[in-house]
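Why does residue order matter? Because the sequence determines the fold. Keep that principle in mind as you read this record.
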Amino acid sequence: MIRLLIADDSALMRKLLEGIFLEEGDFDIRLARNGNEALELVHAFDPQIVTLDVQMPGMDGLTCLSRIMIEAPRPVVMISSLTAEGAEATLEAIELGAVDFIAKPSGAVSLEIDRLRPLVVEKVRAAAGARIRRTLRLTERVRHQIRSAGLVSRPRPGRASPLQSAKIKKGGIKLGNDILPGLVLIGTSTGGPAALDMVLPQLPPDFPWPILVAQHLPASFTGAFAKRLDRECQLNVVEVNQPMPLRPGTIYIGKGDADVMVAPRAAGVIAMPVPAKSSYLWHPSVERMVASALDHLEASNLIGVLMTGMGNDGAEAMKRLRLTGGHTIAEAESSAIVWGMPGELVKNGGAEVVRPLEDIAETILEMVGSSAAN
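Structure:
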């Protein structure tokens, strides 16, 4: 049996969520009405997984989450609204250690919950087996507290990168009057925001390639997420909310509830949002993003990175990228919160290298530096 704690101030929401998991037949469930009750039950019941409402009277969800991650770290899935305020609170929760989130139904809760049932169960089951790393969670809390105090805006440049001694190679992708040496394609899902928050700020300000990211998030979240990353990174970070040229040294975050694709234009290569395609299960689709890059660019100019996330989104396209001459990096099982997506890339033979999260930025730099030196 999976021990599940559901904390929500809405009696209806508690009842509906409890009903969903009782029907599954393998959950032992306890209910809490607020953060104080939830914290007590974390210690008394010792749940394997907690669902935590963001907005609760007394001790709210963020405060409760922070206490849980300090006193008794375990997987937590936040229950949040899709409002701008809800997006900010949810991203803050992820910084504090939450594994994932479930968006509250926007209409009649009792009607919408049936539509969301498969996703709710999938997310909670995946989170129940997620890896919680104390050191990573502590690092995130400290960084979050420093940022909240306004002590830093962007991190200081780290050690010298392989790019500083390498010349940009003469070939590459034509971009108007400029030459774009290459493109980095990154795919993430469950646990991805925290992973991206560790990897992307390590890239130096002279990074010469654009970076295109497909992170599974709702549309109301990706703009706020891009702004948060922009405050963290030495590179500029933008949401792909309209067609935009791919420029070196910029990180492009695919807009949620849509797909992001690479396309050629007379002035050069662009990234653009397109309506989500039903044949792809997750959005923005990593598979579709990488496939579009392969349709228009040489694989040798591409680096694919697949990090934490449930499912297999991107594994087949990145395998094709590797087999046609590109480079691929899969996050190691030892660091991934959920080793679904990178694990599939490893299993299908498409991973050129497998690296723990803390080494992925350096590996990207080495690959770009090697490409530039050739």
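The chain has twelve helices and 17 strands.
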